[in-house]
Amino acid sequence: GAAGCVATLLHDAAMNPAEVVKQRMQMYNSPYQRVMDCVRAVWRNEGAGAFYRSYTTQLTMNIPFQAIHFMTYEFLQEQLNPHRQYNPGSHVVSGACAGAVAAAATTPLDVCKTLLNTQESLALSSNISGHITGMANAFRTVYQVGGVTAYFRGVQARVIFQMPSTAIAWSVYEFFKYILTKRQEERRAGK
């Protein structure tokens, strides 16, 4: 458990700046043409902190995402594969559905993370301070700009993105688990 927590902290610390740059380049009418142009402009205009505005939101999103993801996968495996045999079809379906449920449930956090990363002008104009900082401020701003439905903007795209990703991850995990377990059993039988 501790290793997983440290891994998540380090992963998100390394990936958060990349996510900021990616999202700013994906914005409608983004002023950035190249990655390094974006990095330099953000650093110059907003400072290093801009790359980590969404860090706590990212961490806060990953915890429920992974919890929901694993619980849903295990529940579906219990329903589709109660004997827990190697069954690629059940692993793919359970993985895809688990990713879909986790993605949908954590979309409000993803919307707030995106707002913190992009500092969109429409949201900034509704924000008194000029910059959106922190998760609570992002949640308030999203609600002010678009109401409750704004928390789920992009949910379909997020679900569609996560489904193949988690289906592949679970099927590969289960495949290697099966191969390694089979080899271990063969070694024991050979002794």
UniProtKB/TrEMBL annotation:
GO terms for cellular component: mitochondrial inner membrane. It catalyses: Fe(2+)(in) = Fe(2+)(out). Solcar repeats lie at residues 1-79, 86-179. One of its GO terms (molecular function) is ferrous iron transmembrane transporter activity. It comes from the Eukaryota. InterPro entries: MCP_dom_sf, MCP_transmembrane. One of its GO terms (biological process) is iron import into the mitochondrion. PANTHER family: MITOFERRIN-1-RELATED, MITOFERRIN-2. This is MFRN2 protein.
